[in-house]
Amino acid sequence: MDEDEFFIPQLVKHTGGKKVMWSFVFNGRHCVLTTHQLMTQSEFRKTVLEKVHRFPPRRAPVNFESYIGNLMRNCVEQEDAGPV
Question: By C-alpha distance, which of 10, 8, 1, 3 is closest to 55?
Answer without folding.
Answer: 1
